[in-house]
């Protein structure tokens, strides 16, 4: 059987020499869920637009469910479901009307499409709101309707482009539960893009980290984190300490490595973070540069991102750094 | 076209149109409210310029008779030249992209817009014609006259709506659409025979008006409304208008491609 998604060397340039994609390649197997993780502007949405036939790449090849995206977009469109960042639901129409129209566009018959709409409304907890205009829905309800719209015709491949962006924590949790259920369906392959580290960690069995238009690392969340040996230890000062005594103090400690001092903040790795903290604090005390605070975090995808993209996720993400991506909980939640 | 009903132009057009008309029926007040403006033109201009028919050579029995087609066509122009704003809404909301990733054809999406604009314009044109008649306008050429007027208003309306949609798809900027409309609406209307008989225009305006599609629509309609209908004029001016409208709808469908390239 062909792969659900096979993309190789995708390149896309926008006017003004903006390189959105720079040779991106991904593969998603049948029934697999791949998380495409990266900051805003990394090229995730451009990838989704190419794979869903909305735009054409400048170079590269892509096939979805065995159909060439460039040569047979008509065939691709019949087998994909797309939940894009923008809702796209008709705000003036009811949830049910939106679903029925969507089914009609895939050639579903009257009785069939009504049955399917009822089924999806029930499944996504929208039965009571079925006859209400979509503009009266809460953000979470709208997003659930968007996912339902993408599933009306029972697609083989589902694209979820930042499905929880803008949702409150409760709505996000319920969306996660829903996506996890979808992932349990063997017949459905899912490409999930997200710029929330914890989301990729939690939902995707395999993660591809995208930076500046290409995949910089790929593997299972645990596998990727496993490549980073040990826990992250962060030390904080009130004022930036002199570098030399700090380095000297820590270089002598066994099991502590990859010391990065950045102003008042220091990051390092230790095989056993909890045991290392007292030793680190004592060594710094002795060296005359006592620290104000120290924290331990299990390796998170943020650390993986730092390692492969060479910068912190929140920095790369710029204005959107205020997202709920907490590196510490990303590792700890599992 | 494929043998399957999925992605066929007819079913696609049907369901996309169904969607548009459902929206119109959910909120019919819009169609009635936008009639306020042509009503004002009809009765204000009708009163204000009442006596221009006395100018030798104007050639109409009453000014109301003369401006009913003018107001109908001007209304069709102003109603439809903002169609691109609705398209902008659909682009920004993500609705257009939602349809573009389904098997529905681009031409079906465009066709649905044409049907909606045609029906909305025809409805408003009929109301204006009936109100004009109630106020004392004559349509001596019989029912064919108003029918041609409605048809001409639909053609000029669809032409401008397609142009506005093309602009929305290519430029994707509300201010450009509004600016261009404000800039074009008055010249399109007043450099035509909407409110003044052609024989009385300064010659340069007459020449500009001759190339103005708004005039083609008016000439076709007035020829049909005459007590001695000039079917030759109806056919030639109507024919050019039809060709232009068809070409512009084609352009709007084609601009989907450019939209997809640049998003």
Automatic annotation (TrEMBL), chain A:
What InterPro entries does the entry give? Answer: AAA+_ATPase (IPR003593), ABC_transporter-like_ATP-bd (IPR003439), ABC_transporter-like_CS (IPR017871), ABC_transporter_ATP-binding (IPR050763), DrrA (IPR005894), DrrA1/2-like_C (IPR025302), P-loop_NTPase (IPR027417)
SUPFAM superfamilies tied to this protein = P-loop containing nucleoside triphosphate hydrolases
Q: Would you tell me the Gene Ontology cellular component terms?
A: plasma membrane
One of the entry's Gene Ontology molecular-function terms is: ATP binding
Q: Where is the ABC transporter domain?
A: 5-237
Give the GO biological process terms. daunorubicin transport; doxorubicin transport; response to antibiotic
Q: Which family does it belong to?
A: Belongs to the ABC transporter superfamily. Drug exporter-1 (DrugE1) (TC 3.A.1.105) family.
- What protein name is recorded for this chain? ATP-binding cassette domain-containing protein
UniProtKB/TrEMBL annotation, chain B:
Its organism's taxonomic lineage begins at: Bacteria, Bacillati, Actinomycetota, Actinomycetes, Streptosporangiales
Q: Does the keyword Membrane apply?
A: yes
What positions does the domain ABC transmembrane type-2 occupy? 29-259
> Which UniProt keywords are listed?
Antibiotic resistance, Cell membrane, Membrane, Transmembrane, Transmembrane helix, Transport
Q: What's this protein's family per the entry?
A: Belongs to the ABC-2 integral membrane protein family.
Question: Which locations, inside or outside the cell, does it occupy?
Answer: Cell membrane; Membrane
Q: Where are the transmembrane segments?
A: 24-46, 66-87, 108-135, 147-171, 178-197, 238-256
Any one GO MF term held by the record is:
ABC-type transporter activity
Provide the primary localization: membrane
**Protein's membrane topology:** Multi-pass membrane protein
Q: Which Pfam families match?
A: ABC2_membrane (PF01061)
Q: Which InterPro entries match?
A: ABC2_TM (IPR013525), ABC2_TM_bact-type (IPR047817), ABC_2_transport (IPR000412), Nod_factor_ABC_transporter (IPR051784)
For the biological process aspect of GO, one term held by this record is: response to antibiotic
Q: Name one GO cellular component term.
A: ATP-binding cassette (ABC) transporter complex
- From the Swiss-Prot or TrEMBL record, give the protein name: Transport permease protein
């Amino acid at each position: 059987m062909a792969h659900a998604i096979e993309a190789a060397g995708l390149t896309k340039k926008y006017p003004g020499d903006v390189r959105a994609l720079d040779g991106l390649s991904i593969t998603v197997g049948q029934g697999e869920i791949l998380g495409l993780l990266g900051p805003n502007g990394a090229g995730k949405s451009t990838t989704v637009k190419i794979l869903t036939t909305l735009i054409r790449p400048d170079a590269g090849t892509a096939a979805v469910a065995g159909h060439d995206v460039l040569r047979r977009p008509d065939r691709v469109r019949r087998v994909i479901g797309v939940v894009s960042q923008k809702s796209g639901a008709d705000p003036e129409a009811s949830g049910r009307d939106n679903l029925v129209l969507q089914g009609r566009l895939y050639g579903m018959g009257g009785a069939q499409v009504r049955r399917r709409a009822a089924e999806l409304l029930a499944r996504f907890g929208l039965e009571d709101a079925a006859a209400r205009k979509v503009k009266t829905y809460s953000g979470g309800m709208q997003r659930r309707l968007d996912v339902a719209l993408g599933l009306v015709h029972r697609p083989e491949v589902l694209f979820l482009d930042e499905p929880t962006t803008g949702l409150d924590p409760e709505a996000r949790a319920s969306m996660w539960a829903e996506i996890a259920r979808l992932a349990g369906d063997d017949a459905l392959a899912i490409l999930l893009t997200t710029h929330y580290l914890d989301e990729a960690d939690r939902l995707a069995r395999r993660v591809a980290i995208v930076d500046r238009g290409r995949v910089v690392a790929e593997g299972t969340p645990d596998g990727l984190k496993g490549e980073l040996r040990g826990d992250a230890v962060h030390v904080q000062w009130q004022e930036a300490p002199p570098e030399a005594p700090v380095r000297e103090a820590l270089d002598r400690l066994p099991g502590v490595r990859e010391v990065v001092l950045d102003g008042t903040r220091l990051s390092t790795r230790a095989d056993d973070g909890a045991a290392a903290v007292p030793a680190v604090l004592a060594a710094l005390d002795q060296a005359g540069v006592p620290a104000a605070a120290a924290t331990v975090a299990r390796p998170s995808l943020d650390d993986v991102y730092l390692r492969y993209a060479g910068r912190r996720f929140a920095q790369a993400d710029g204005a959107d750094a205020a997202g709920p991506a907490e590196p510490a909980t990303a590792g700890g939640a599992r | 076209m494929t043998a399957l009903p999925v992605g066929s132009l007819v079913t696609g057009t049907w369901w996309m149109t169904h969607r548009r008309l459902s929206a119109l029926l959910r909120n019919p007040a819009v169609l009635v409210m936008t009639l306020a403006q042509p009503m004002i033109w009809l009765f204000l201009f009708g009163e204000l310029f009442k006596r221009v028919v006395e100018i030798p050579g104007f050639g109409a029995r009453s000014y109301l008779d003369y401006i009913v087609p003018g107001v109908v066509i001007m209304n069709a122009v102003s109603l439809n030249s903002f169609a691109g704003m609705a398209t902008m809404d659909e682009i920004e909301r993500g609705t257009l992209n939602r349809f573009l990733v389904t098997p529905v054809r681009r031409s079906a999406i465009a066709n649905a817009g044409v049907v909606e604009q045609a029906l909305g314009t025809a409805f408003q044109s009929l109301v204006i014609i009936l109100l004009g008649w109630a106020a004392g306008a004559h349509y001596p050429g019989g029912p064919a006259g108003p029918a041609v007027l409605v048809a001409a208003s639909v053609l000029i309306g669809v032409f401008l709506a397609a142009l506005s949609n093309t602009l929305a798809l290519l430029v994707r900027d509300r201010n450009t659409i509004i600016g261009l409309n404000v800039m074009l609406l008055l010249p399109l209307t007043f450099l035509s025979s909407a409110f003044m008989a052609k024989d009385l225009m300064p010659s340069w305006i007459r020449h500009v008006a001759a190339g103005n599609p708004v005039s083609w629509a008016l000439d076709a309609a007035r020829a049909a409304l005459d007590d001695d209908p000039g079917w030759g004029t109806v056919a030639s001016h109507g024919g050019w208008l039809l060709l232009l409208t068809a070409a512009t709808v084609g352009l709007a469908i084609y601009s989907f491609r450019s939209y997809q390239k640049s998003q």
